[in-house]
């Protein structure tokens, strides 16, 4: 019985850690941090990209090719509750997040992905604005989603690359493109490495 009690308490603590949010200050201003990936042994603190849970307005997001909000969310409730929506990405569509402030302390991002057919891939481009306002693709990576929502591995923001920062900050966005067939994304987070 004691092993069962310990396991139950550990599960409750992980859920509390994942849903507990606190504010922190950085060169990018005040951000709300949480540990959404704690149940997957990632205890880093993350900040939700604006509109990245797809529950409310998608102001700042740029959608094309049929990308749209669709019913159904990742089932883990990492934002504090299980949502009702995710972003559906049909083949040939794109979805770009709003530009957000990052510093060299923002090394990775994560999100949930799901494939709507076998063999799908999802290309993610990391975009930065130069000091003159020109948008450049810094890097890209492809992930292969499963048929159920799971978190993707931590992916690099490239924020430590020299020359991107102006006064210690830069403007970064993420662009999502299905490679072969329909995919979905949900709960897009960036890790500002704060405690």
What's the number of helices?
1
Tally the beta strands.
15
N-to-C CA distance: 35 Å
Uncertain runs with pLDDT below 50, 5 residues or more?
Answer: 1-19
Helix residue percentage: under 10%
Question: Strand count, sense and closure of the main sheet?
Answer: 7 strands, antiparallel
Our Rg estimate from Cα atoms comes to: 17 Å
What structural class results from the helix and strand content?
mainly beta
Per DSSP, what share of the residues sits in E-state strands of 2 or more residues? 35-45%
- The helix/strand order is HEEEEEEEEEEEEEEE
- The best one-word shape is globular
Mean pLDDT: 84
Structure explained in plain terms:
It is a single chain. The chain is mainly beta and 195 residues long. The chain is 9% helix and 39% strand. Strands 3, 5, 6, 9, 12, 13 and 15 form a seven-stranded antiparallel sheet that branches. Strands 4, 7, 8, 10, 11 and 14 form a six-stranded antiparallel sheet that branches. The longest helix is centred in the first third of the chain and has 18 residues, at 2-19. The radius of gyration is 17 Å and the shape is globular. The model is unreliable at 1-19 (pLDDT under 50).
Task: Produce the secondary structure layout.
Blueprint: H1 2-19, E1 22-26, E2 29-33, E3 47-48, E4 62-64, E5 68-71, E6 85-89, E7 94-96, E8 100-102, E9 108-115, E10 122-129, E11 135-143, E12 150-151, E13 155-156, E14 170-178, E15 183-191
Antiparallel strand pairs: 1-2, 3-15, 4-7, 5-6, 6-15, 7-14, 8-14, 9-12, 9-13, 9-15, 10-11, 10-14
